[in-house]
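Two proteins follow. First one:
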Amino acid sequence: MTRLSLLFISATLFLGCRDSSIRRAPGDPVALLEFRVEAASANLPGVASFPDPGGHPILLRPEVVIRNADISSVEVEQSKGHFSVGLRFIPSAAARLERETASNLGRRMAVLIDGKIVVAPLIRSAISSQARIDAHFTRDEAFRIARSVAPPAA
């Protein structure tokens, strides 16, 4: 094997690893996953305040855009020394997510796990069939989250 091949393999392993199609095994804990859009006003029915990861309050609409049942597959990705959780959605959920994100540009989309916001990025464009939860997780955190929100093993 040439030196160039070894460098390419090392760079690939360091910069872009992924473990795909993670499934929840029987007995694995299940976490409640929710994607919810930031509310335009506190005066709307059902709006609730949640602390974001920095401790600042964010007002969220009561409607859940994405939940566990909407996930078709989960993978853990590594890039530049940190880990993230990649999600793919079933077609009906992808269409719903695309509608909600397209009509809420400039607002935040909160990703909650067990009722706690882990990330709340600004919606800059429509999102549809896949998303990545990128909160600079450790390897163990990413795999724990991935297994807890993944569809059950067949």
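Second one, unrelated to the first:
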Amino acid sequence: MLTESEPHYRQPLLKTPFHERARALSQIDSFIPWSGYTTVDVFTSVEQEYFAIRNASSLYDLTPMVKYRIAGADALRFLNRLATRDLSKLRAGRVAYTVWCNDAGHLIDDGTVFCLGPNEYRLCTAERQLDWLRASAIGFEVEIRDVTDEIAALAVQGPTSCKLLKTVGLQGIESLKPFEHGAFAMPAGTAAPGVKCKLATGTFFSVEVVLKGAVWSSR
């Protein structure tokens, strides 16, 4: 693992806003590359973290997940052409899982679509798709922009995740229904007072998990 003192040309991977804290907590210094970033693979052991997510809570840095802002008069029409799911039913404050294919019907990738408001959406996916998205948008009045490096993200998963997030100050999150997202702010007296974040429930895949959330906060 490269140290902070080494020159930038020997540190080709970007660091997320959580990197220094995550590295301090990592007991085995196991990092992996993901979409141009370096992120923790395992903090302690696979076995311990498996039982944590099944019985308590786990934390995962999702900052490298690729995020696109899709906005404009034809944003919904474009997304409905792109994806295999009817997104006209997706209202503001809701999230939908979908896949998209090429012209031959072969699967390209999957991801989640957040409806942020009228004619404004966020598409989240594991791999970069900007060229395909922009090529597919020809003829549509829509702007597609990569906002990955503008948004930090954490996944909090496990049966105690709701209680954990309430303990750190995110009161009211229990009112969120599956596949909803809402805006919250850390209250005074916490480690990050005033920090605004957006929390979505039910957008990641883990069996027998009561509440799964991703905290999205602008850096």
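SUMMARY FIELD: Helices lie at 19-25, 46-55, 75-82, 130-136, 161-167. Residues 66-148 form a domain with the Alpha-Beta Plaits fold (CATH 3.30.70.1400).
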